Amino acid sequence: QLALVIGGTIGGLLLLLLIGASCCLWRRFCATLTYEELPGTPAMATAAASSGQWDRPCQPHARTQLSRPPAVPFVVPPTLQGRDWVPLHSGEWADAPWDPCLASELLPHTPSGGLGDACMLGAINPELYKFPEDKSETDFPDGCLGRLWFSVEYEQEAERLLVGLIKAQHLQAPSETCSPLVKLYLLPDERRFLQSKTKRKTSNPQFDEHFIFQVSSKTITQRVLKFSVYHVDRQRKHQLLGQVLFPLKNETLVGDCRRVIWRDLEAESLEPPSEFGDLQFCLSYNDYLSRLTVVVLRAKGLRLQEDRGIV
């Protein structure tokens, strides 16, 4: 009986080991069936040919290969090995890549027939590509009374002169604070003028105002645009800081856009009157009516003749 018990125990253990080994082999076998090999691998083809059990899992994989789109051709460009040395004017030499695909007839030729001498290379000068600095707002000459920016445009069809008063800078006020305003005249008419708004407590006023003068196209080139810059004190009195005289010429009025112009202020002319005085008048001629109109504006410095008792 003891021998039977020992034999049964050993047989049971062997049976359990056999069952465990069979389970392990079955799991490995099932795991190998789930693997898929990349296309173009020769090992998959040899395995399918040597064993019939690989035929079924390979059939769906073959169908997926047929349904894939064709590969895009990729070509690596050839590297250029050659180099050519090109002479420079300064006596130095620079190496340039040699391009065999460039047609020789497209290259410039020298009278001697060489191609290398025609391709003159040089260093890039960055100073040539810089925008010129606008020094009109920073450079002021000694004794400058101020600077005025404005724009001028003439509409030929409407016979209108459009004047844009932009700004002024570096105004020299008689007091610590400056409250400037600008009066615009179209000479020789000094009786009528247009006036800007007063800017309070600034020597660099920004006006950004527009004015319109109605003037004929026949007389526009004979007119002079005058800007008179004043300082308004606490008593509302106007003190002249300077003036700008801008003759209206053809080249300044032609164009589709307004030209921005700047001028330095000039002091008022203080020439002494003549021996017998000065008389200021205005002339205007009407071509249609053939009529000349003379308007006496003012007189100053007239000399009194004592012997006659008249001026």
Automatic annotation (TrEMBL):
User: Taking every annotated instance into account, which residue ranges of this chain make up the domain C2?
Assistant: 144-261
**Annotated InterPro entries:** C2_dom (IPR000008), C2_domain_sf (IPR035892), Synaptotagmin-15/17_C2A (IPR047897)
Tell me if Repeat is a UniProt keyword of this record: yes
Database matches in SMART domains: C2
Protein name (Swiss-Prot/TrEMBL) = C2 domain-containing protein
Mind telling me which SUPFAM superfamilies this protein's record contains?
C2 domain (Calcium/lipid-binding domain, CaLB)
- MF term (GO), any: calcium ion binding
* Alphabetical list of PROSITE patterns matching this protein: C2
What keywords would UniProt list here? Repeat
Q: Which Gene3D superfamilies match?
A: C2 domain
GO cellular component: a single term: plasma membrane
Protein family according to the UniProt entry: Belongs to the synaptotagmin family.
User: What biological-process terms (Gene Ontology) are attached?
Assistant: calcium-ion regulated exocytosis
